[in-house]
Amino acid sequence: MINAKYRRVVFAFFMSLFMSFIMSMVITFINLGLIDGFVAKWMEAFFKAFVCAFPIVFFVAPTVQKITNKLIKE
I want to staple 20 with a disulfide (CB 3.0 to 4.6 A). Which of 30, 44, 49, 74 is the partner? Predict the structure, then answer.
């Protein structure tokens, strides 16, 4: 298993992986429809999205967690 000190990196990796995978498929489908070569276009969009999403999630997630903690009543 992965050491707990890497929790933030692992979280950011998987959150950005799943979100960019799903969102790139949705946006590619909305923009192009189900065309020939759809999967290739989707994978191109996914790679580009993931490259952006990983550092965004890594740096933004702690701030979002703090905001959420302030808004949630215990």
Answer: 49
